[in-house]
Every structure is written in structure tokens, then in C-alpha cells.
């Protein structure tokens, strides 16, 4: 029997292959973000990497890019509305189906989660057909409704996961000590699932802010959202301003992520 | 009084047993704004003509009667397979590295994995336009090293698209893998090596089979996301490569042919759900294998 501590050809080759592949994966994950960040500081008119010289000119040009600003504002407002509604609807539903092992609860769970595996583009098209058949004009509201359907699953998933960690004995002791249901919810249930709801809300916001498949069909000229606007810029002109917008988005995302990691332990909720 | 919580019956409270009503708002919302639109999609796909005057299976006959459509559907489903396999090949070692790292390294790794998930898809795809373009990094490197005489066309090719999609969808694969691998009992690995198995044998006989549920979950999410990745497909794939999402978009927005768009959406949705269900079955089977 070989001594397991002595490096053998097997240990060496295993470490080499796993090390190489995981390093490649890490590089692959991190590089594009860094490339966009560096490119956004270019002084030139093309997306050359590395840039010939550096400047802040494309960031400055964002100050009077009113179309992009409008789109960003619409996306922000949309994200806030969608997150708010998703949290209320999703948390309520999670409380209802969380501890039930019954068939109806499993069925609803599958229904609410299905937007995650269904091709969202087909749902976007279906939504467009639904509202125009019903004679309802596309608006901010109809766009928000479409976004909520695809954002709710995130809130539901993280809230259900945190509910699973809640010991039912705690609820029973609270009740047997004379606490009312609302009081128990506020003092026992809510503190336990708060982080789950928080992480879910964050991901729901990001998924709405970044949504393409639904917005593609549901966003009209008056309600243009940022990802669609940026897609059009990239499709038509490869404008360097898109790099500057990307730079702003990356910085804001990293900041929000670090804050969420501190406040709600985001990475634990995502797993 | 000694009573285990398991067999304690909660005393009847006003409101007790009414918790299910909390699911009503979301159920109603989904019934109106999710289920109804999808049913409508089925109905629209059953119109025989684009003016929607009479019913018939003409749209489906039109779709399956043309070899071009088969090619679009096939290349879309196959694109998902290629991306999923490559994502697993690179993502698995990364998840494995995570389980072997200290707490500090783990937080760093998880942030690198989650960051792309939370950065806009447009931004991530845009990065690939910069990397693969004529003036991009890959071409600059090839020219400098003298490996190519003129810039290669990397953008608007299927290989470029696969590379971009692997990166864009990698977090969806790595996160479930990390979850299963961290739950794996380290004693099993020790036992395997104490019994004389080398790292390769331990990996293929113990680690890999035990992490099958995570592999299936990761593959499911990655596959579903990469076949529907409209933006990446259209920006990196360009005009020459046509996949189902752009096909649906074209038929709806440019050609206003609703019944045909609805029919190809149905075909697309059913094929994707078919693959997803197949993977789910594999996942169930693998769970049985582990507990056996």
C-alpha cells in the first residue's frame, strides 16, 4: 500500500489538471469584467484593447446622454416597483407553502418556480399577446407585471430556504407563552427569514434591472429600459459610451454586492 | 411533562390552519399574468393563417415541413449542449478548489463567481465583443506572436459564441456544485485514500458520483439559460448565426407573424422542457443510486 502522504504521479497529475482547469475558469470569470473596465477609460473612438491612451472622456459624455439617462431611470424605477411587489407576494406565498408537505403546496411551488426554467422569451411574447388581445396598451405597469412574474421565483427560493432553517419548536414555545400570531411573526419568524428575504429582494432587483427577454417585447418607446438601450447601441454602432455605462454598472454592482454580503450574507443565501 | 416536539399537536388557534390563504395573492397573480398568457400562446399558435381567421395546425406543418427550421432548432439545442459540457468541465474543478480552500480564499472565490451573475448580461457580452473583435485581445496576441498574418474573424462565429456563453453562464453551474461538494462527507474521501485509492480513483469513484445531484442542477440551469440567451446570441453570434430566440423575435417584431411566432415558441418551449425533464429524471436516478 503506498504512503498517502508521499506525492505520487497520481497526486501530481490530479493536482495539475484540477489546478489548471480551475485557474482557467477563474480567469474566464474575472477577465471580461476587467477588460470592459479598462476599455471604458480609453481616449480613442474604437473598442481597442489595450486602449492607445487613457481618459475620462466617455464618462463625461454620459452627463449629456439623456437617452441613456432616461433609460437608466426607467430601469431603476421599474426595479424598485418590481422588487417591492415581488417581496410582498413572494414572502406571503413562502409562508403559506414553506412548511406544508401537501400536494397543493408542492404544485404551487413548482408553478411559481417554473419561470426560471421556461424560455423567458416565450413568456415575453405570450405577455405581449395577452395584453394586446385584452386591449390593454403597453405601459410601465404592464412591463412591471411581466418583470414580477420572472422575479418572484428568486424571492420565493431564498425565503423558502431560510424558512426551512426555522425550528417549529420556536413558534410553538412562542405561542404557548401567550404570544399572538402577529407578535410571533414579528419577533420569531421575521428575524430568522430576514436575510433570506433581503438576498431574494437583491437578486430580484438585479434580475429586473438586467431583464431582456420580457422587456424585449413589453418595453415600448416611452418606457425604454437600460439593457435594451445598450443592446441597441452595441448592435448598431459599438459606441464607446456603452463601455462607460458598463463601467458605472460594474462599480455600482460590486459596491451593492459587498454591502449585501455584509448585511445579509448574500453568498450563503445564493447557494 | 416530557413531550417531543414532533408529536405535539398545536392547540386550535383562531386563524390557525388558514396560513394557506397567504398563497392566494401570488396564485391569482400567476393565474392571470403567467398561465393565461401561456394558454393564449397555445391558442394563437393554432391559427392557420397570419390574419388569425381560422384554426388549424398549419403553422406547425409549416415549421416542420422546412429543413431550415429543423436546422435552427437543432443548432439551438446543440449549442446548449456544447455550452453545458464545457461549463461543467471548467466549473467543476473551480467548485472543487472552493471546497479545498480556507475561509478567506472561499469568500474571495465566491465573489469572483457571483460577480458575473450580477453584472448585466449586456455588459458581459459586450466584454466578449471587445475580446473577440478585429482589434481585440485575442487577435492582438495572435498577431504579436506571429501566429496569424491578418486578424482572424472570431466574432460572429459559433466558437466565439460558445466561449462567451460558457463565461456568461458559468456561475449557474458553479453555485449548485459548490453546495453539493461542501455537503460531501470528507471521511469518505479519507476512507477511499486510506484504502489505497489514488486521487483519480477517489475522484471518479467517490466524489463525482456523490456530486451528481449538483451536476444535474447546474446543467439544468446552464442549459435553460444558454439556449435562451438572446443578447449574447445576437451580439456575439451576429447576423450569420440564427437561433430560436432571434427567430421568434424576428417573426414577432419585424414580420408581425403572430401565429408562426407562437408556434415556433411552443416548439422551442416544449423541446427545452423536454431536455430539462430528461435531466431531472437523471437527477432522480442519481439520487437513488447514492442512497442505495
From TrEMBL, chain A:
Keywords, ordered alphabetically: Cell inner membrane, Cell membrane, Membrane, Transmembrane, Transmembrane helix, Transport
Top-level taxonomic group: Bacteria
Alphabetical list of PANTHER family matching this protein: INNER MEMBRANE ABC TRANSPORTER PERMEASE PROTEIN YDCV
Official protein name in the record: Spermidine/putrescine transport system permease protein
Stored Pfam families: BPD_transp_1
* Major subcellular site: membrane
Taxonomically, what lineage is the organism?
Bacteria, Pseudomonadati, Pseudomonadota, Alphaproteobacteria, Rhodospirillales
Q: Which residues form the ABC transmembrane type-1 domain?
A: 72-261
Organism field: Azospirillum rugosum
Question: How does the record classify its membrane topology?
Answer: Multi-pass membrane protein
Where does it localize? Cell inner membrane; Cell membrane
Membrane-spanning regions, if any?
12-41, 76-98, 110-132, 138-156, 196-218, 238-260
Report the family membership. Answer: Belongs to the binding-protein-dependent transport system permease family.
Automatic annotation (TrEMBL), chain B:
**Compartments (UniProt record):** Cell membrane
Record Gene3D superfamilies:
MetI-like
Entries under InterPro entries matching the protein: MetI-like (IPR000515), MetI-like_sf (IPR035906)
Regarding the membrane, this protein is recorded as: Multi-pass membrane protein
Q: Which CDD domains match?
A: TM_PBP2
Q: Which residues form a coiled coil?
A: none
Per the record, the similarity remark reads:
Belongs to the binding-protein-dependent transport system permease family. CysTW subfamily.
Q: What is this protein called?
A: Spermidine/putrescine transport system permease protein
Q: What is the lineage of its organism?
A: Bacteria, Pseudomonadati, Pseudomonadota, Alphaproteobacteria, Rhodospirillales
